[in-house]
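User: Show me sequence and structure for the first protein, then do the same for the second.

Assistant: Starting with the first protein.
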Amino acid sequence: MAQAPRRTRRHDPNRRQRIIDAALEVLAADGVAGITHRAIGTAADVPLGSITYHFANLADIVDAAFETHVARLADRFATRLAACDSPDDVIECIVAAVTDDLAGHPHELAITYELYGDAVRRSQTKQVTQHWMTLAEDALAQHFPRPTARLLDVVVEGLMVHMSIAQQQISKGEVRALLTIAAHAGQAAYESGTDLGVEVDADHQFVKPTLQEKT
């Protein structure tokens, strides 16, 4: 009796990344609550065994998915800002990053909202979220003093949440106006010498108060 031919193993070197991308699809459609091995396996077109081979548990998949999402966001944001020179140009770059790059891709907006929501409950996701905010602020600090960069980052973060849940979307003109107001207000407060309750060094970095200063 002839033996049945051996089944050829499928060569799939990018399977781990495909699983992560599939998890991002599930996050965008169904949120963290929708993350299951079966849902990811269906989206990635891989057997369940492949998922458990690459990831110990679902939390590891969620972590990898959020880390990938943040890396893509941060890289695109930094690339946008690196192409700009004057403060006015930078504002336009931030507007494009918010309205074209993010709001123009609803699935990414949904994933970002899931990122923020999960950060409230899980320390690992909070670290990933903090990494994203730090990278965004660092990119802005290439063009503005650190206090203004932080203010603009707070506005950007707020706009991202707003765009995720608002029934009436904010227009590009409104986004531009809000960012311009924040940039001008931040610069004016910084240059006026007003006591803002924080110290800034010669390199426009926040100076953390010592324990003695706090008391």
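Switching to the second protein now.
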Amino acid sequence: MLAYINFMAALHLNLNVKLENMEDVLKFYSTRGEDDPFTYLLPEEIEKTAHDHQLKILHHLTSDGTAYMRGEQLNNLTKESFDQYMKLHLETCEYKYILGYGLHGLIILTA
């Protein structure tokens, strides 16, 4: 099992509200955050790494989906609404086309 931080989601997370820090975000994009203590990957990069090491992908999902973009909204949900949100997340978290939306990725592998 490997967890990773999604590079594209991290880019968007670092944009400020008025987009006044585009230069910093573009630098982060071009350097891949090399001065950052974290490693940022794209979903296809982690899959390539798995294939390069002859590992079979059992599951590849976004563990948080868009929750990082909706913190205040999620914190204010009723239990019923939160349960519905979680049901939607759990039903869609492995859709390949939304892996890049989530800030945190999780890939479960076997040899």
